[in-house]
Write a structure and sequence with these properties.
Blueprint lengths: L1 H6 L1 E3 L10 H16 L17 H4 L3 H17 L2 E13 L2 E7 L13 H15 L4 E7 L3 E8 L2 H10 L12 H12 L7 E7 L10 H10 L3 E7 L4 E8 L2 E8 L4 H10 L4 E4 L2 H14 L3 E12 L1 H19 L8
Parallel strand pairs: 3-4, 3-6, 6-7, 7-10
Antiparallel strand pairs: 1-2, 2-11, 4-5, 8-9
């Protein structure tokens, strides 16, 4: 606990801490000279009696220990420990962004490692971490759509929600791209921000939704919302394990991918379409979006300090008082 406290502390006069070297010097001096202060007198008639350890003899070094601790606390107080708070003041206007994730079964395909969804989540988190001053929300969809995280400037909240996305989060299976876009538009349409965008991550194969993609696209156009569509996947063939009466067997499967639909949605909303064939391509796509959608803000950073020396000073004074009290009462020496 004390170590964690020191990790968040800065000292106004750190050079004062060098005075702590006095304490080991005092300990060495005390060790060498302590026996000289313990006067003893041999009595011929009692030298054969073994020495009896009393309370005073057991704890005779206790006042010295208290004095060393008091000195250490006072030196730390003189160095003026301060708790630093880093604060940022943001001026200007950010961008409102909704990350719209396809979590249907097709996003479990392993043409990305470990699969399409996990790769998309990882790169999206890097994107969120680099956006300063923007409000970001998260929408997920399969047959239904759901707002997982409302728009917020709290990056940690957004990152936590992206991390929690799992396949099967929405029970009904399907790929309702139109519903995903419509929910994202609903989160953005009433906001006064000049720049509003949706980043749509899907394989583009739409089926099972209540709202067709064409209708959702027109809704985005109506409210001036750009859609950056990222086509995740390909139409290549892969091997999959299938259960048969003869046991598990390999089967060749052609992956589904609808590029034409995503290109149309992006073009109609004045966004852009990107095709991600692997994780590296996905990283470059987010870098491109970062450059295209720049936030117009000014961030002013400043540090605020609170003084933390008083508890140390008070502890040092209290220990000195206790040490003096013990030395002149319990451990008082008589001539």
């Amino acid at each position: 606990m004390l170590l964690e406290w020191f990790q968040n502390i800065k000292f106004a006069y750190p050079w004062v801490l060098s005075l702590l070297i006095i304490i080991p010097i005092l300990i060495i001096w005390y060790g060498k000279n302590g026996t000289k202060r313990n006067a003893s007198m041999m009595v011929t008639t009692t030298h054969f009696i073994s020495e009896v350890k009393s309370f005073r003899s057991w704890f005779r070094h206790f006042p010295f220990v208290l004095r060393c601790l008091a000195l250490a606390f006072i030196i730390v107080a003189l160095a003026r420990p301060q708790h630093e708070f880093a604060e940022q003041q943001v001026e200007g206007e950010g961008i409102d962004i909704v990350l719209c994730f396809d979590i249907s079964g097709s996003m479990n395909e392993k043409d990305f490692l470990p699969n399409r969804l996990e790769a998309s989540k990882e790169v999206a988190q890097q994107f969120v971490a680099e956006r300063t001053g923007d409000r970001i929300g998260v929408v997920i969809f399969s047959r239904q759509s759901f707002t997982l995280c409302p728009l917020t400037t709290d990056k940690n909240a957004v990152l936590a929600q992206i991390s929690n996305i799992r396949m099967g989060y929405l029970e009904e299976e399907g790929t309702a791209i139109g519903s995903g876009i419509a929910t994202s538009v609903d989160r953005l349409k009433d906001l006064k921000t000049k720049s509003k965008i949706i980043i749509l991550l899907t394989d583009g194969v739409d089926f099972g939704g209540m709202i067709p993609p064409d209708i959702a696209k027109e809704m985005a156009k109506l409210y001036g919302i750009k859609i950056y569509a990222i086509g995740v996947g390909s139409e290549k063939e892969v091997d999959e394990q299938v259960d048969t009466p003869l046991g598990k067997m390999k089967n060749r499967k052609k992956l589904e991918f609808n590029e034409a639909l995503l290109k149309n949605i992006a073009a109609e909303t004045k966004g852009q379409y990107f095709h991600a064939t692997d994780r590296e391509a996905l990283v470059k796509i987010y870098e491109s979006i970062n450059k295209l959608e720049k936030t117009r803000i000014k961030v002013t950073s400043y540090n605020r300090y609170t003084e933390e020396f008083f508890p140390w000073l008070l502890a040092g004074i209290v220990l000195l008082f206790i040490e003096g009290l013990l030395r002149y009462t319990v451990f008082k020496r008589f001539p």
